[in-house]
Amino acid sequence: MKSGHSFGAVRIVVALLAVIAVALALWQLQRGKGDLIVAHATVGDTPLTVFRAPTTTRAPVVVIAHGFAGSQQLMQPFAQTMARNGYIAVTFDFTGHGRNPVTMKGDVDEPTRITGVLVDDLARVTDYARALPQSDGRAAVLGHSMASDIVVRYAMAHPEIVATVAVSVFTRVATATSPRNLLVIVGALEPQMLIDEGLRIVNLSTGGGAVAGRTYGEFDKGTARRLALSSGVEHIGVLYSQDSLREALAWMNDSFGRTSSGWIDRRPIWLALLFGGLIALAWPLSALLPQAAPVPMGASLAWKPLLIAAIAPAVLTPLLLWKAPTDFLIILLGDYLTLHFLLYGALTAAILWLIRLRQRKAATHPPHHAGHSLARLESLPDPAHPRTSIAALIIAATVAIAYNIIGFGWPLDTYLFSFMPIEPRVHLIAAVACGTIPYFVTAEWMAHGEGARRGAYALAKFCFLASLAAAVALNLHKLFFLIIIVPAILLLFVAFGLISNWTYKATNHPLPGALANAILFAWAIAVTFPMVIR
């Protein structure tokens, strides 16, 4: 009894610390905005946000563009850094991305038409920004990944653009003198080909021998060139790096001949504290969930059948989908991911059924030397066990889903990327869930139960990631952009895997955690990937 009270006290302490962490993180994130005026507007169908200090008048504008599968929230570190240093910063959602309701039309493998649409988006937003009452008419553009090519193309066609910053650059159109004052920023942990591309661009003006961290050319003549490497970051981390923000701000100041306070956005530590607090809070809160079953439910697999159930779908799924048509949803790559989840889950369910069938058959006709172990198999819980409380399952699943979507959704949408869906994306969540639900339900069932092996959950998730990697390797041309999101999927598996395991321990049933994760993943996929009609 004393031990139970102590454990309850620990939960209370963890809950208090988690709430303090979340509150502190939110305070610091809001504090980072300072007294900035943040205004939302729409140009045509393009939603945009203007960041400026109250005292900013007659200042240059910096138009900031996100990359593939991104949204304007992702670019807030650059926007707030520029705005708090006296610039007018403008972010926006490209066609097909974020809260932009217009669907891209064309083939991203042959992106000439789509590129033109995105350049037009940038042009409309830049024209709007330069006409703002507080603007002095001068402008610079900054773009990440996909948008690095877009901002370079736009600035080359508009020589009045004073400076261009290309983050995680890949463009073949830059020349030795155009666009004006070009800064290339690449994360030091990004693929070497991006670093090489940055060097190639700078070498166009130097004739060779360019090195990272050195500025070439003259700002007054518009010929300045520089490659900056942001230490210790990859393709997404480069957007939050102190090196990236400092380099971009210094470049704007040199290009426009301005000085500033040097304030730099420092949100990574507060984002980590915020989401770490939300994850930690789930542990004490999970104790409030109703118990759905008297004993732990699940497949309770020994190592041999567990390995079969984990590895076979991982191998078969990418092979079966290698040549399969997957263009049935308007979210690029979301259709393939939906099929991958669905087939993976179906194969896992079939294998689990065969294993269960074999166990029952063995229990009915046991060999003499295996009577004891087979008797144990016969006693394993049945998925349709009558003692399972349907009401408790519904309550636990509803609470878990709400915590994932609302508890994490609001800060994600506010500080990281567009998470709250616009109308055209709502039905896509349901469509993707048709794939994620079978996967998560079967994966959670496979990894749990009274006799479940330690490490079964991690094995299941590792096999799924390996399966995605195999799919990309088999069809690199079509699935290349999945490489970018695999780290994000791994992070989600770890974070929400912890929450689903705590949910399982509280309810004795894998279904609530499985449904919560399935809805979260379906939601994230449906709101993140660009809408494209091919």
How would you characterize this protein structure?
The chain has 534 residues and is of the alpha/beta class. The chain has two domains: 33-266, Alpha/Beta hydrolase fold, catalytic domain (Rossmann fold); 290-533, no CATH class. It has 17 helices and eleven strands. The protein has helices spanning 2-32, 76-83, 112-130, 146-157, 192-206, 242-256, 268-286, 303-320, 334-364, 371-378, 390-407, 409-415, 423-447, 456-474, 476-479, 482-507, 511-528; strands at 37-43, 46-52, 59-65, 88-92, 104-105, 135-144, 163-167, 182-187, 215-216, 225-230, 532-533. The strands form two sheets. It has a nine-stranded mixed beta sheet, with helices on both faces. It has a two-stranded parallel sheet with strand order 5-11. Helix 7 runs parallel beside helix 16 (482-507), helix 9 (334-364) runs parallel beside helix 13 (423-447) and helix 11 packs across helix 16. The protein is globular, with a radius of gyration of 26 Å. The model is unreliable at 370-384 (pLDDT under 50). It comes from Rhodopseudomonas palustris. Keywords: Hydrolase, Membrane, Transmembrane, Transmembrane helix.
